[in-house]
Every structure is written in C-alpha cells, then in structure tokens.
Specification:
single chain; alpha/beta; TIM Barrel; 2 domains; 44% helix; globular; binds iron/sulfur cluster
C-alpha cells in the first residue's frame, strides 16, 4: 500500500481510504452486520488504514458495521472518521447536549473512545458554513480538548473560491471534498489552497457517482497505457495528485477493495497543474454533469430530480437530445411530462452539489 502524510500532522494514511456508504444493501436490510464488517477487515488486511463513515449511511448502519470491524483490529492502526451538522442534530440551533449525544452515539456505534477525524459535515454554501462556525465549532473544540475527537475537519460541496475562504481561517486540519475526472477543473483551486496551507485533503466521489464506470467509453483516456480498468484508472487519476492525501473508494465487495489497492500500486504523485496538462487534450471534463449524490432530494412536487438529471447527463455524454427520453423511458420508466410539475421553488438548485441549472433542464425536458 502507498501511504501519504496527512497534512502537517505526523499521521501516515493509505492513499486510498475505505468509503463505508456502500456496504451490501441486502445484508444491511437483513441485519447481517457482521458479514458487512468483513469488508473493512479485508481492507485492513490490505493496508487501508483510513475508514470514512457517518450517521445515516447504509440505513444508519454504517457506523455500527465499521465499529464491529474496528473492535477486531489494533485500534491505533486505523484512522476512523465520523460527521455531524445541524441536520444530524435535527436543529438549526443545536445545544451542547445535542452535539454531545450525537457524538456519543457515534463513539458507541464505532466501539471506540475517540474519533480520529470529526467532520463539520456537508457545508453546501459559505452562509451555511458561517452559521455552523458560530453555533457548532465551539462544541468541536471542547470535544477535542476532552480527547473524544482528535482532529477537526470539514466536508464540503462548495466551489473553489469559497473553500479557499474556509481554508484561510486555519480552523481545520483537513477537508473532505468531491473530486474526480468529471469536475476537476471546478474544484482544483480549493484543493491546492488546502494543501498549501498544510491541511490533509480527502476526496469522496472519485468515480463521479458511478458515472465513470457506467460510461467507460467516455473515460477510456484515463486508462490508456496503464493496464488498469477505467474505474481503477479513475481512482488513480485522483490519488496521483500531490495535493490529495486520501482517495475514498466505496466498497461493497472484496473485489472493490482489490480494485482500490491496485489503483495505487506504485503510485507516482504529481502536482495538479501537471495532471491537468496531461489529461486536458485527452478527454473532456464534465463539470455540468449530475453525479447522482441526491442532495437535492425533498422536492415539494416529488419530482425524482436525480433521475431526471441522470437522463439529462445522457444528452451531455452522447451529444444527442433523444438520449434523454430514451433514458427516462427505458431505464427509469418515468414520464418526461412529470418534469413540467416543477414550480421553480429553487430548493433543489440551492442544495445541488454540482450547482446545476435544474429548473432550466426540467423545462427543456418537459418541452
Ligand atoms: S425547483 Fe422544481 S424540481 Fe426543484 S425542488 Fe422546486 S419544484 Fe422541485
Ligand atoms: S442534481 Fe445536483 S444534488 Fe441532485 S443528484 Fe445531481 S448533482 Fe446531486
């Protein structure tokens, strides 16, 4: 396994980390948590020592599964994360007690008395981040003083220049951000700023929400001459950035763990600028694709936005407008006419991690 230094700490982490939001759905539903825990145990065997979890992942079972595995390995050899924000505390104005109960629940599920990296979770905008700083950051600091959390970090879907603002405060040891071969131009300035300021940079969603493996022909350029599969090469694309510390790979099976390990075999690190030059001419960057993250859920008209946006992706990827209808009919089985129900309230666009013009696209689909 290839290891990297986490920012300006003395922590050495594996270049690929375990994303724990993809434990086998059927096993989760059936309560076979011990079976799911075989995945982090296998990852540990392969040298993956960074495990990223959170409340609500896998029907709120991910922390428990991860805890089962964590209790079976040498605790000091794994760096485990969890996350909280106003939503997990179910209040826009959380109290110290609410914060404490949520943290204790995570500790209990993870069967540990400390969390290595605790995230201020999913900062979608600078305004939201400012409110979290005012009302929540102090609780993080207190928990850190007590030794319940070791490092305060944040996760974000903000754009580059907003991330630079957060980084500039010097309040965080590291950050978690979505970055991949689809959106790299859009996110690169934030990653560089964090790295230059001595922060660890962890990347989620390196496969573009499944978009890359589902459209291998569009991303074949990533794998050219590497002997890797397209998904492996997409992981390697991210992990090879000097500015990126850990690339999270969501693993359902042991084969997924093997893919992640293979992706960073004899890794060569390069500065982001060099990587951009290398890939610029070979492929295209799709900053305007929906990644299927589903942060836009909760439409008041019950429009299945990620499905509509996935269908719109097909137009972008193939260059053919018909591809939208084809995807809606043959893949999602939803009528295009449902797009016309949008009342343009803007809720989804505010939450969209890719900052997509959802309303405009729905209008186009509705005809
Ligand atoms: S803008 Fe349209 S699609 Fe988005 S949440 Fe509002 S009604 Fe739903
Ligand atoms: S529309 Fe935006 S928020 Fe919704 S799934 Fe796609 S990328 Fe995510």
């Amino acid at each position: 396994m290839y290891y990297k230094q986490y920012g300006n700490t003395d922590i050495k982490v594996s270049a690929v980390g375990l994303g724990t939001m993809r434990y086998d759905e059927e096993d989760i539903k059936a309560g076979r948590l011990e079976k799911c825990a075989e995945i982090p145990l296998y990852a540990f065997e392969k040298g993956i020592n960074y495990w990223d979890t959170a409340p609500y992942y896998c029907e709120d079972k991910s922390e428990s599964v991860t805890g089962i595995a964590l209790s079976q390995v040498d605790r000091k050899k794994v760096y485990v994360t969890s996350k909280t924000n106003f939503s997990t505390l179910e209040s826009e104005h959380p109290t110290k007690d609410m914060f404490r109960r949520r943290l204790e629940m995570s500790l209990d599920r993870l069967k540990t008395d400390y969390i290595d990296f605790y995230h201020m979770w999913c900062m979608l905008s600078i305004e939201s981040w400012e409110r979290h700083m005012e009302e929540l950051y102090g609780f993080f600091e207190e928990a850190q003083k007590e030794g319940l959390i070791r490092n305060i970090v944040f996760s974000s879907h903000m754009q580059g220049n907003d991330i630079e603002t957060v980084v500039g405060t010097g309040k965080f040891k590291g950050m978690l951000i979505g970055y991949n071969a689809l959106n790299y131009r859009f996110r690169q300035s934030g990653i560089k700023a964090a790295h230059e300021s001595g922060m660890g940079v962890v990347v989620m969603n390196p496969l573009g929400g499944g978009m890359i493996p589902q459209n291998p022909e569009n991303f074949a350029y990533l794998a050219e001459g590497t002997g890797l599969t397209v998904p492996q090469a997409a992981l390697r694309f991210v992990a090879s950035h000097k500015e990126i510390t850990v690339t999270l790979a969501g693993c359902t099976t042991k084969a997924h763990v093997d893919d992640a390990v293979k992706a960073v075999e004899s890794l060569v690190e390069k500065p982001a600028d060099e990587i951009v030059k290398e890939y610029e001419g070979k492929g295209v960057s799709f900053n305007n694709l929906c990644t299927g993250c589903a942060y836009c859920k909760g439409c008041p008209k019950n429009i299945p936005i990620p499905k509509f946006m996935d269908a719109y992706n097909q137009k972008i990827l193939t260059g053919k407008k018909d591809a939208i209808m084809d995807r809606l009919d043959n893949h999602w089985d939803i009528p295009a006419s449902q797009a016309a129900e949008c009342i343009a309230c803007g809720k989804c666009e505010k939450a969209c991690t890719q900052h997509l013009p959802i309303i405009e696209r729905l209008k186009e689909i509705a005809g």
